[in-house]
Amino acid sequence: MDETECSPSFILEYNGSTLPVTVDSNGLRKIGVPDEPKSGFEQLLNPTKDQRQQNARFLHTLSAASVGGLVGYVHAASRLDSTTIAGTAILAIVAILLVCRFC
Questions:
Q1: Could you give the number of structural domains in the chain?
Q2: Which residue range forms the structural domain that includes residue 2?
Q3: What's the rounded Cα separation, in Å, for the pair 96 and 55?
Q4: pLDDT per position as a tens digit, 18-39
Q5: Are residues 19 and 55 located together in one domain of the fold?
Q6: Do 61 and 102 belong to one domain?
Q7: Are 58 and 52 in contact (CB under 8 A)?
Q8: Which spans are transmembrane here (predicted)?
Q9: Same domain, yes or no, for 19 and 59?
Q10: Residues 6+ apart with CB under 8 A from 19
Q11: Is residue 17 predicted with pLDDT exceeding 80?
Q12: What is the pTM of this model?
């Protein structure tokens, strides 16, 4: 590699942990593996970036379904009474809470 080029860099994730990658004097890359992997409960409390993104996508889908249910519920109601208004309000609140969870 020329002196003007930067060496490639990357991040390695193993069992939810970000591992350091170092280059030794011979140019070999070495990885430090942690002694103890994270427990299932700790992984649940500290999700990785990809897991947070998937959770946000799932909540967005649930929010869109709630909005669709709200529209269908209002259009299917034969009359606008307190039960219909309460159901509509609940679906609207659920949609807003799900969207705002990962804003």
A1: 2
A2: 1-46
A3: 16
A4: 777 877 888 788 887 766 666 7
A5: no
A6: yes
A7: no
A8: 58-76, 82-100
A9: no
A10: 12, 13, 31, 32, 33, 34
A11: no
A12: 0.55
